Amino acid sequence: MKLVQQSNGTIIDVDLPRGLRMNNPGNIRISTTKWKGEVIPSADKSFKQFESMSYGYRAMLKLVRNYKILYGLNTIRKIISRWAPPNENNTDTYVNFVSKYTGFQPDTVINVYKREQMVSIAAAITLQENGHDYKVNISDINKGWDLL
Description:
- By secondary structure, the protein is mainly alpha-helical.
- It is 46% helix and 7% strand.
- The protein has a two-stranded antiparallel sheet with strand order 1-2. It has a two-stranded antiparallel sheet with strand order 3-4.
- Strand 1 and strand 2 (11-13) form a beta hairpin.
- The longest helix is centred in the middle third of the chain and has 19 residues, at 53-71.
């Protein structure tokens, strides 16, 4: 563990993957959207930073929910194709991982208002974004859900 104080005053473990260092397990990019619990400015010039993992999960869960509400994206294939587009990622591999982890087929309709489904998807996204060896803290995801 190597702790470093960032310019915004936060102390992070630089040995952790970026998403975990920034309490942003989904690696949400900096944008004009301001999320509850977001640290501004972020210690990272490209990705958002959150006060806690719970707020990072809240943003992830809300963003996935917004994909359904705003764009009608309601399957793992559709959600992940927007979350991790082919111009930046191997989207098919990502879809297959999330599908296998959650047990939902890529084209099964997801209910974005069902905690169990969304917690499972959030855990899979976390692993894909931060490394499959990371032990996901389901309690943090549930706290994020409770913040919605």
